[in-house]
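Posting for a labmate who doesn't have an account.
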Amino acid sequence: MGDLSRIDARVNRLGACPLMFKVVGLQVFVAGVVVVLAGVIGGQSAAVSALLGGGVCLIPNALFAARLRWVSRKPQGAGVLTFLVGEFVKLGLTLALLVAVVQGYDKLVWLAMIIAIIACLKSYLLVFWLDRIQYK
């Protein structure tokens, strides 16, 4: 049972921590860079595809961060179940948005969209790297 209480404490710190919003902010920046590069290299359709791919990741992540922040301000805080349910909802929303983009945008440039998705999903590594540089 001790492991669960430590996980609860980490989730509470994670929900209250601005690190999640740093990740979302960095995802916005990375998506913007990918959109500009896709537009320069592949034209308007590639830029829109990259924008939609970035949005597929950004919207669920921003909602998840806001929900954890909101729940962590309650007296009981954010528990493991809140975190796990939020993560499943985030994954479901990501999948639903991805399906909507694929079905709804006729000029989809798959490569641009996939690169934007990967860049957004991996941008959290930059946050940890930048934080480590900041504290050295």
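Reply:
Got it, the structure tokens are right above this. The chain has one domain: 2-134.
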